[in-house]
Each structure stands twice: as structure tokens, then as C-alpha cells.
Amino acid sequence: MGIQYAILFGLIAMVGSGLSGVIAREPVRALGSDRALFWRGVVMVTLHIPLLFLFSSKAITWQGIALALGVGMIGYLPIYFFFRAISHGRVGVVSPISNSSAVITAMLAVFILGEPFGAYRIYGLFLVLSGVILLSVNFSDWKNSALLRHESGIPFAVAACLGWGVVMFLFRYPIGLIGPVPTSFIVETVILSFAALRLRSKRESFALTKDFHIPIALVGVFGVIGVVAYDFGLTTSAVAIVAILNMTNPVVSAAYEHFAFGEKLSLRQYAGMALAIVGAVAVSVF
After folding, report:
1. How far apart are the first and last CA of the chain?
2. Which helix (H) or strand (E) element contains residue 211?
């Protein structure tokens, strides 16, 4: 599949990931990172089952399963750190930092896979990165070093960024052997299992209160849309484009925060959103 499909899947992943992350804010803060991650996993794994029958075209190999299990074990850490980040800080702040991981993924695709990445795409990547920085960083916080405190959520977001940058590239290898949906099913099952083990080891409750049934369901639904679209995007010849388009999902998160939670966006954040969108267009078109 070519660039057109990469753009399509990247845009779908952007919307799914952005909405899943921002809707997760309240459940994570109320339930805790592990319990919210567990119930997110329950929804996502359940929704993957019918998709397995619809999209499993490749033969399942033990090598592919082993690689997917490995990616899942590594992949638990960045999603855990992201949930810790949004349990402390604003989604519109920590989400852009976490999703800057696409820079790492894109560079790995260019240098390891040899994907073409001309001057216009480099410029577009620069605009996207500049946009997410403007969206995420309140520069006045440097005065009191608030950015380095765990209460801001930013240290956890940085950890999620570094982990996701590598993990989202590694997805390509099991996908090449067993396909996108089986890979994401195995990875999400591993993440669910780790969350369950953590809850069990800490002797915390698994209970999900009625107030969060719908939010957790939405987190899972949009999460499936985001991860499956991203995985299909990795089957194209333009992994870097998919990663960068998915990176702009903080625009969706920030917009949702504004309209759903009434959080005001500053001129700086509007400028960041504009730069990210223009950069995404440049990466896609040229």
C-alpha cells in the first residue's frame, strides 16, 4: 500500500488516539492508573475478537507470536507512564509530549527502513514538533521548575515518549509476520495481563463503578480505532508519514478539552495547533 493509504490510516489513528487519551483523563484520576489500564484492556481485547475473524489474512507463526509478545511486554511501560502522566497533569499538556515519540519512530523508519524523507517532509516534521511544543509547554513554569515535578505529569510523559518512539516502530516486525490485528490483539492482551498482575500484587480492587462504564468503553473503542489504524498504516511504504500524522493527535485532545471540559486555550496553544496541522499537511502532500 502506498502513501494515500498511509495518510488515511495516519489520520484515523490521530483521531482515535487523541480521543482515547483525553477521555481517559477522568477514569484514570478516579480509578488509578492500573485499574483504568486494566478495564481499558478488557474493552480493547474484547473488541479485537470479531476483528480477528474479519482481518486475519496471514498465517499465524510462532515467530510472529513471540515478537508480538515481546512488543507487548515492552509496550506496557509507555502506556503505563502515559496513564500516570494524565493522572497528574492536563491531557493537553502531557499528550503532546508523549506523542512526540513519533519523531523517534519516523527517524527509525528513515534510517533503518530507508524510507524517503525529503526537505519538505523535514520542514513539516519541524512544524509538527514546534506545534506540539507550543501546545504542551507553559514557558513560565521554567521559573519554578514545575516541569520537573511529578505533579505536572511531564516526567512521566517524557518516559512515555521515549518508550513509544521505539515500541511503535517495533510493531512493524510482528505485523509483517502475522498481520496488524493479530499483533495488536496479542500486544493488548499482554498489557491487560500486566495491569491485572499489578492490581493483584498491590491487592487493589478490580471493581469498576457505574459512573465510569461509558467513559471506559469509549476509551477502549477509540483506543482500538487508533491502534488498529496505526498498525495497518505500518503495512504501507510510508511508516514515517503514519507516525507523524498520528503525532498530531494532541490537536484532537486539546480541542476536546476545550469543548468538553471548558479549559481555555491560550494564543500560544492555538498557534501550536495551527503549526501542527500545517506541518501534517506538508508531510502528507510533499
Report:
1. 17
2. none
Largest distance between two CA atoms of the chain: 56
Give the Cα separation of 19 and 223 in Å (integer): 8
How far apart CA 9 and CA 124 sit, in angstroms, is 18
Domain boundaries along the sequence of the chain: 3-285
88-128 confidence digits (pLDDT tens): 666 556 666 776 777 788 888 888 878 777 777 788 888 88
What is the average per-residue pLDDT within 39-59? 88
Q: What angle do CA 14, 199, 225 make, to 5 degrees?
A: 20
Q: Which helix (H) or strand (E) holds 144?
A: none
154 in Cβ contact with 94 (< 8 Å)? yes
Q: In 56-139, which residue ranges form alpha helices assigned H by DSSP?
A: 62-88, 91-99, 101-113, 119-136
